[in-house]
Amino acid sequence: MGKVRGEKFDYFAYFYACGCAALEAATYLHETFSSFDPAALTRQVDELHKIENDADGLKHDMLRHLAHEFMTPIELEDIISLSQDLDNVVDSIDDVMQRVNMYAANIRTLRPEVLSFTSLIVRCSHALETVLKEFKHFRKSKTIMPLLIEINTIESEGDALFAKSMKQLYTEDVDMRHVIIWTNIFECLESCLDFCEDVADIIEGVIMKNT
After folding, report:
1. Mean pLDDT of the chain
2. Which CATH number does the domain housing residue 85 bear?
């Protein structure tokens, strides 16, 4: 996930490590669902939760350093907000796996929309990881803003996919138990993209305030 410890804490290395964790979690979710096996879900939940726990460890380490800092590379409030929203990205991906496992007794196969969502989450996480790798150069970077626009575009694709998926679900499925289950899962999938966009919005705000 990248080295964030040292004599002087490197906040930009920390942000990038969080971006790597988000991409790792998104990729694992997509690969797991691409070869969906209900019998393997308990193990897979544990594997994804390890990624989420590692990301939490990074956050706690950063906050310990932040409590003793006199000067930070960007505003303290932005570091805290960005840290929280990056944590939300990984947590929301973990939550998708948890929800599917929770409903495993009623899910033998995944609806096709699920892989469309996870593909978008991987794309969004990859763009976010690239932004965070470049973030330390935000005052001069020519690539960050186009990537932030890309993240917003992917999130809009997710909104459209959510609307389409919900319409199909409520039109085609007469089993209210399935409707409730899949409504919950679709909402969790959409939240992953929403949190990615939240991170992009904070980064855009940092750039606007500091350039």
Report:
1. 93
2. 1.20.58.220
